[in-house]
User: What shape does this take?
Amino acid sequence: MDSVNKKYPHIKKGRGHPLVLLHGLMGGLSNFKYVLDFFPKIGYEVIFPFLPLYNRPLFLTNIYSISNYIIEFLIEIGVRKVTLIGNSLGGHIALIIAKNNMDLVHSLVLTGSSGLFEKSFGSHFPKRENYEYIKKKSQEVFYNPSIATKELVDEIFHIVNDKKKGIKILYMARSSMKYNMSKDLSLIHIPICLIWGKQDYITPPDVANLFHKLLPNSDLYWIDKCGHVPMMEHPKTFTIIMEKWLSQFNLNHENIFCKI
Assistant: This one.
């Protein structure tokens, strides 16, 4: 782990144009493993900040506060014109940052992003102590339910049954649902790549189409037999799409095209 200080723990790999990875509400480093391993090899710097979802007071547990945290983090480490890659809640955070701090952002890659509509647990965790229920909800994230391994389900089960973490997840989810960005998207003119699972149950295909319609400068790509987390369920396909889309900007200065 490379970190500026204890306030901004993060992982950094490679040198070149900075790609900043923003995970979802109950996501983590493993979601972006292929991206983190691949892009440093072809002339990009990949940065993965650990989002402080569980260790802040409740009044700072909201999407606005986390977005400001990432802005402060980017300023602290001295990067500009970054590409933000966000999944689910991470995509929503990326959109907020792009809207409010365009000088920091070159482009966005959004996949299964919240910000318009998403299916969630709602205002509480029903049956949170029911392991089979949590397993079913975890499997709904993927087209292939076997991606929701026992290890992954166990981790989510532990989080939602931890009283402090569970409350903070609900606070974060409520703030995300409250901040609908339909009226803001026309103001975001930077290039945006939308990569969506055709079978996304959480943010369905209609959501991707609406993002594409409302964002002035977006490209939309589909991955078949894929749910809400394309970079985890189809990591190679996701990375191919993302690399080809980024290559049009010559951001890595070496103009390397790498076939996976």
User: Anything to note?
Assistant: The CA atoms of residues 206 and 260 lie 30 Å apart. The chain is about 35% helix and 15% strand. Strands lie at 2-3, 9-13, 17-22, 44-49, 82-87, 105-111, 192-197, 218-223.
